[in-house]
Amino acid sequence: MSVTIVKVENNRQLKRFVKFGYELYKECPYYVPELFEDAMNTLRKDRNAAFEFCDADYFLAYKDGVLAGRIAVLVNKVANEKWGQNAARFGWVDFIDDKEVVDALFATAEKWARERGLTELQGPLGFTDLDREGMLIEGFDRLGTMSTIYNYPYYPEHMNRLGFAKDADWVEFLLKIPEKKWEKAERVAAIVERKFGLRTLRCKSRSELAKRYGYQLFALVNECYAPLYGFTPLTDKQIDQLIKMYLPVIDLRLISLVVDKDDNLVGMGVSIYSLAEALRKSRGRMLPFGWWHLLKALFVKPPKRLDFLLVAVKPEYQSKGVFALIFNEMLDNFMKLGIVDVESNPELETNHKIQSQWSEFEKEQHKRRRAFKKELC
After folding, report:
1. CB of 150 within 8 A of CB of 30?
2. Which residues pair with 62 in a beta bridge?
């Protein structure tokens, strides 16, 4: 019995690389597939602006002629410079529960890193912090989200066997929406508006949102997320791609913007209807009928669960009650829409500022995921 590693060299092989994840989890009730088209665009070097500062290769593992695993290996040069590292990253890693397959995949990844003079391998991570990242280590019996990786329980067992150690953990919460607004949040929001000259803003259309505040949204992400593990600033080209990708499907009732007296963005909360079930029904494909499941979830009969995508407040305002201003407005809209609960999506376990914002919610910490690292001798 033998394992053969094949480097992805063409579009046909890249499609096999993406499809393998769907095939491995086709019977799993908790797996939420990536949208196939988005996955392809992320991995194609002519479509993803991150390749301005990243290099990557993708590999397939075949056991006795049958596809049994995949792994992407990449280097984010900006991240290495910013964080003082000399690291390669691995991501888009999936495999059957087979020691030979796993060993061959990671031996290939380590060899790739060493050939480029890199001395550490870490992951699962993507090109940027907005890609799916972190291997699930708790919550295997909970439905995933559109933004997160799902993996079988045997994955972290193999990581430990191969000598990988914890680099960072993310936790995720399921937040119950209260039946009525919090008096404390309303009171704090009113004080913040009056004391600091801030106000919440409602855009009349998605085009207005994109034109007036699209760039400011992601500039705020760059500023607020800068200290977080592995983060690298989004380039103008990446921001343009994200504006075109996400803002056309945002329900304006699910976004809260806080601006100062000069209309400069100082805080935001962005959520989206959960697409988990729609993506499962569509199997991650728009055609032939997958588009209907996604359209229905976004605009026709939205689910009663939301995903938080982004929450950010300028550093100088983070201790001044701006979070209360954001959530006071968002909760009002959530209750009007009949929303039952919200997925927080991954938060670094050390990010106590954001976790403190959930203190008033009835909540459950139901998932945990990990980035691993290994020093390469």
Report:
1. yes
2. 4, 67
For residue 2, count other CB atoms closer than 10 A to its CB.
9
Residue 118 has phi, psi (to 5 degrees) of: -90, 145
The continuous run of DSSP H or E covering 71 comes out as strand 66-76
- Between the CA atoms of 329, 330, 336 and 340, what dihedral angle is there, to the nearest 10 degrees? -150
CA separation, residue 261 to residues 199, 202, 218 (Å): 8, 15, 20
Question: How many other CB atoms are there within 10 angstroms of residue 38's CB atom?
Answer: 15
CA 14 from centre of chain:
21
* pLDDT tens figures, 242-293: 999 889 889 999 999 999 999 999 999 999 999 999 999 999 999 888 899 9
Dihedral sign computed on CA atoms, order 36, 40, 43, 48: negative
Burial readout 77-90 (b: 16 or more C-beta within 10 A, e: otherwise)? eebbeeeebebbbb
How many Cβ atoms sit within 10 Å of the Cβ of residue 293?
19
**Alpha carbon distances (Å) from 338 to 141, 300, 328, 375:** 26, 15, 16, 49
How far is it, in rounded angstroms, from Cα 73 to Cα 108?
A: 9
Is residue 177 within 8 A of residue 342, CB to CB? The reply is yes
Side-chain half-sphere of 374: how many Cα atoms within 13 Å? 20
Burial class for 363, CB neighbours closer than 10 Å (0-12, 13-18, 19+)? middle
User: What is each CA distance from 68 to 35, 73, 120, 163, in whole angstroms?
Assistant: 21, 17, 25, 22
Taking only the tens place, the pLDDT of each residue in 160-171 is 999 999 999 999
2 token code pair: 């033998």
373: part of which helix (H) or strand (E)? strand 362-375
Helix residue spans in the chain (DSSP H): 11-24, 36-43, 77-83, 99-115, 154-161, 183-196, 206-208, 214-224, 236-246, 276-282, 290-295, 322-336, 352-356
Contact 33, 290 (CB under 8 A): no
